[in-house]
Amino acid sequence: MKEKAVAAESKCVRIGIVILNWNTKDYLQKFLPPLIDSVELFNSSSTACSAEIVVADSASTDGSLSLLESVFPSIRTIPLDKNYGFTGGYNRAIRELIDRPSDSTYDLFVLLNSDIEVDRNWLAPLAEWMDAHPDCGACGPKLHSWYEKDKFEYAGAAGGLIDRYGYPFCRGRVMKKLETDRGQYDTPKDVLWITGACLVVRSEVWVELGGLDDRFFAHMEEIDLCWRMQLSGWRVCVVPQSVVWHLGGGTLPAESPWKLYLNYRNNILLLENNLGRTIGRRSAALRILLRKGLDLCSALVYLICGKIEYSKAVLRAHRDARELVAASSPYGPENNLTGSRPGQHKVCGIYNKCMIPRALIGSKIDTENI
Known about the structure:
This protein is α/β, with parallel strands linked by helices. The chain has 2 domains: 13-246, Alpha-Beta Complex (Spore Coat Polysaccharide Biosynthesis Protein SpsA, Chain A), CATH 3.90.550.60; 257-279 and 281-340. The protein contains 11 helices and 14 strands. It has helices spanning 25-45, 64-71, 85-98, 123-132, 203-209, 221-231, 257-279, 281-304, 308-326, 333-336, 355-360; strands spanning 13-21, 49-57, 76-79, 108-112, 116-118, 136-145, 160-163, 168-170, 173-174, 177-178, 189-190, 198-202, 235-246, 350-351. Strands 1, 2, 3, 4, 5, 6, 11, 12 and 13 form a 9-stranded mixed sheet that branches. Strand 2 (49-57), helix 2 and strand 3 form a beta-alpha-beta unit. Helix 1 (25-45) packs parallel to helix 2, helix 7 (257-279) runs antiparallel to helix 8 (281-304) and helix 7 (257-279) packs parallel to helix 9 (308-326).
């Protein structure tokens, strides 16, 4: 893991809370007021940190910018000329913030969805964790459902994991089965990934890794970023002393063929980016081949069930993933699958079995020993 020298003098840590908005005016109106209250409390009670809210708008057409100007004039906005997706939007917004003069440089960024509700004290545990653990590149809170406050939420629950074939799941959420939070995950833990719905990232790590992989557009890009962090020697941790509530499904419905396409395509990109450096080129190539076979089985099942658009989405995802991997990119196989040895840094949060059969028969996965 990264070894960081402890500064002899304390310095003010500046935190940029960046919300990427695309036509979610109603969410901004609902969830910005408690966020603003929490930031004001944090700034007034902290002598070592200060936080600022920034909204990057992806060319919304629902009046989002007008709302921000009239109701929330103190919040800085970054208007983008079009919707670049989660990856492109955040890459552009954070690049603009990093390029600001040095006296206003951010040390930490919080990527925060517009449909997240926070309490008054959500930020302090995350900032304190990053201050106390200089080898941690990213952290995040427990994610609860906005609809059922005591239950974990699908997108991140209590920290993200992945199985041997690249299927993501979480502590507190396996497939669509969600646990009630009874304090079973209240110890901070190293995990593979933290949800992009509320992700704290060191500015230096963001710059070092080049931000998010633009090819993903949306879905699984945070898993890729966190995995690349670990391969570069940084830790990724969940900090359960902080809890936020996620509405979820605000941009794409779960039944969307486009969302299905992104998930299948990006899952292959995720493995191509990182698996070779984790387990070695030959083992990775075989495992990715097996994963592609499982995906083709899924496409066949969709076809048999009459879900033709879903079947087409899976096949199109594999075609496009193959083309993207073949093209030159900073994370392509020419960088990550060359050489026969895995990376030098241990990657936490990979379950060395396929979690799907166990989940289908209701067998519990011991996520604490992964």
